[in-house]
Write a structure and sequence with these properties.
- By secondary structure, this protein is mainly alpha-helical.
- It has 9 helices and no strands.
- The protein starts with a helix and ends in a 7-residue tail after the last helix.
């Protein structure tokens, strides 16, 4: 049976595993954005926290995914459900680019624009939400783009702890030395990553300051 025939014969299972994969990535990215963007804003307001916070995020990024899953396994409540554990691990991996890009984007706003805003009577909160975040949005989105693409790839490893997703085919194929099974997991995962990269890349360019004028 060739790969196309495999996809046709197992289309229902392929669709289910793809949806599981999207669920793992989607929830983890939501959690990472909810934690990472406010943290990046905090670092822009409190620069002295930059090195310790980004240092911890960098350390997490260097931990091999299987090792991170193993470290989180004994945690109460998380270890009871493989999908919870995988979602938390993916969210931790996604934090670094989101925090860093949020921090860089806000810090990169022209000081003259900020001074003009203050001259108009805007408070720090108004400057953040009406000036800094809108101008930094494309940079923040670039961080989300990188994090999403990385998460789609790392999520394939989640199948090793029974969290489901397209990695099921990859690990099954490795155990059976079946290239079709490996490709059945790898190709849809790669297509998901490419699609996410394309969509978020288009949004990033559209939100870039001066893009509409160009």
């Amino acid at each position: 049976m060739n790969l196309i025939q495999f996809f046709i014969a197992n289309r229902v299972e392929v669709a289910e595993l793809t949806l599981e994969h999207l669920r793992l990535v989607g929830i983890s990215m939501l959690l990472a954005a909810l934690a990472g963007i406010p943290t990046g804003i905090l670092l822009a307001r409190r620069p002295r926290l930059e090195k310790p916070v980004l240092g911890v995020a960098n350390i997490v990024e260097t931990i091999p995914s299987l090792a991170l899953f193993g470290l989180l396994l004994p945690v109460p409540w998380l270890g009871d459900r493989a999908d919870r554990l995988a979602i938390l691990a993916l969210a931790l991996y996604a934090l670094l680019p989101i925090i860093r890009n949020t921090y860089v984007g806000i810090n990169g706003v022209d000081r003259a624009i900020l001074e003009a805003g203050r001259g108009m009577g805007l408070t720090d909160r108004q400057l953040l939400f009406q000036v800094q975040l809108p101008l930094a949005l494309s940079v923040i989105l670039a961080g989300l783009r990188v994090a999403t693409v990385v998460s789609v790839g790392v999520a394939t490893i989640a199948a090793a702890i029974g969290a489901g997703g397209l990695g099921e085919y990859i690990f099954r194929g490795l155990a059976m030395v079946n290239n079709n099974l490996i490709l059945a997991g790898a190709i849809p995962a790669a297509l998901l990553a490419l699609t996410a990269d394309l969509i978020l890349g288009l949004a990033e360019r559209k939100l870039r300051p001066g893009a509409s004028a160009g």
